[in-house]
Amino acid sequence: KMLRGRSRMDEHARALDEVARVAREAEVDAVLVAGDVFDSPAPPPEAEKLVYDFLARLLAERISCVLIAGNHDHPKKLGALTALLETVGIQVRTEVRPPADGGVVRLVSRDGSEEARVAVLPFVPERRVVDACLMMGPEGGWYQEYARRIEQMLAALVAGLTPATVNLVLGHLLVDGARRGTGERELHLGQSYGVNPQQLPPSAQYIGLGHLHRPQEISAPARTLYAGSLVELDFGEQEQEKRIVVIEARPGRPVAVESVPITAGRRLRDVSGTLDLLHSQVDALADALLRVTVKADSPVPGLAERAKELLPNALEVRVECATSDECR
User: Fold this and answer.
1) What is the pLDDT of residue 187?
2) Strands ordered across the beta sheet of 268-273
3) N or C: which end of the chain has fewer CB within 10 A?
4) Single pTM value for the model
């Protein structure tokens, strides 16, 4: 994802390096990716290369992967290599499937002694549920219908799970009450389309969610976490502690959850002050991406340009004058 026209491909690459390193050092059996994989339905080749290089690293370490589509992903494009990737232990799901047709993914531990079942729910566009309701009932029921249908899909996916296996759910959806940032697309974040936490299946040992960028745990019948985005994607995500969620699970037991910090992404900072004050902070701000407000007593020609020269990582510069509206 770019930010104010600035490519951040190097940051995403370093973040994926950290994920691969943590997965290798922890000797995990599988990596679960809850979407979004890409920011755009038509990602640039460089972004696709990053993703497939990452998957190749997992393959080299004999680490399985389950990856589902989010609302930013194009299902057909992301799913184009599904058949090929499945032959090497990478399971891609871009649309909802019945349990017997890939809706529940079977994973075997490295030593073959245990088995996990992962019920997967890629992003379900509202229109697929709501369009049918438009002709059927009063407007107030459409949104409730969406949440109810999601609940039914999840219930169907976990219906065949048994205590003999590790039982996980991987989904891309919005849960009511979850805290948002500002980097998520508002089209898919209307609270009306949120699923109540109590609608999540209690039979799962762990539910891993994608959709929201803020790392957080949800109070639900099963242990439920949004891992969050790998780096700060927007200025509304400042000071969020980005992380990888590592879980250890055994059949019939509560999971152990560990959050491993990701350090790769540049921090995003809002900074404000006079040019002299900003000058004194140059060293401390050297590695951050900035949104800058320069304060002045009165209009000063070229002040914004001077601030950009002083802080080359400024993505946006605004001048604010105490005595005039001309600078605003």
Assistant:
1) 43
2) 268-273, 289-296, 314-321
3) C
4) 0.91
